[in-house]
Amino acid sequence: MKEIESNKHAWGQISEGHYHHFKKLLLDGTYKLNKYIQNELGDLSGKKIIHLQCNTGADTILLAKMGATSVVGVDLVPDNILYAKKLANDLNMDNMNFIESDILELIEKHDEKYDVVFVSEGSVCWIPDLIKWGKTIRHLLKDNGFFYVFDNHPFFLAMNWEKSSDNIIEIQCPYFGKEPDIEDSIGGYASAWKDGVKAYSWIFTVSDIINSLASAGLHIEYFNEYRENFFNAGGMDNVGSGLWNYGYNNDKFPMSFSLKASVYHR
Are 255 and 231 in contact (CB under 8 A)? Predict the structure, then answer.
């Protein structure tokens, strides 16, 4: 798929920058999973975990430090996997491994089963086929395992972020749109911006997420909505615990969500 290949190239341009950024934060102890993820994941002691779209492995390492027996990270980008392995080695993490793969091709490559399938923060929008994504998650789960995702709320992704910083709520992207958004630069939050790329992302709806998992035989245990965001989209205040919010957004709209699903047993 040309869009996936283009994304692979685009993300590869910032792999080294992400490695250096997250290595520093991990070494000085300031990088943490946000409070909602920590609270909702609970005790991971003895769990076997797979982390989809792991980037350069920073969150994968945090999962491993939460007591998991083993953690596997998967990412599309060869340089992300290269630097994820290097990061794990730098931090003396020996209970983890990394796989280079398009998530939508993982079923054909990997048959291991896991207690937890984990996805977080800015990941879902890079998946063009959520039905296949749901099937992949089910394929990876043990019958008594669970799936967890924390990501941007679709409502927030549809908003005009520049105007949101001025307390103007405006829909910019069609909530039900299916054509990918195309950016000619990538980076910013953990590396310098890189121009001259084509990065494709897709709008998804709440029902897209829920139905993709339900159709794969998973039971939705909860869908939680949060007013905070996990990065500063412009004009936001750092409210602590890895989260950001507009000063005026006490109750107006959600910017993130979490979902937990488990295997449905008849």
Answer: no
φ/ψ region of 116 (left if φ > 0, alpha if ψ in -120 to 50, else beta) reads beta
Residue 253 is given by DSSP the state: -
In one-letter notation, the amino acid at residue 3 is E
Residue with tokens 């993300």: 11
Q: Token digits for 116?
A: 């937890």
| 238's tokens | 């750092």
How much is the pLDDT for 265?
A: 67
Using pLDDT thresholds of 50, 70 and 90, give the confidence band for residue 266. low
Query: 92-105: b or e for each residue (b if 16 or more CB lie within 10 Å)?
Result: ebeebebbbbbbbe
> Among positive and negative, which fits the CA dihedral 84, 89, 91, 96?
positive
Instruction: Report whether 80 contacts 12 (CB < 8 A).
Output: yes
Q: pLDDT exceeding 90 applies to what percent of the chain?
A: 94
Angstrom distance (rounded) from CA 257 to CA 148: 11
Taking the C-alpha atoms of residue 237 and residue 99, their distance in angstroms, rounded to an integer, is 36
State the pLDDT at residue 170. Answer: 93
**DSSP collapsed to 3 states, 44-94:** CCCCEEEEECCCCCHHHHHHHCCCCCEEEEEECCHHHHHHHHHHHHHCCCC
DSSP state of 180: P
Residue 176 one-letter amino acid? F
Calpha distance 18→125 (Å, rounded): 19
Distance (Å, rounded) from C-alpha 66 to C-alpha 246? Answer: 31
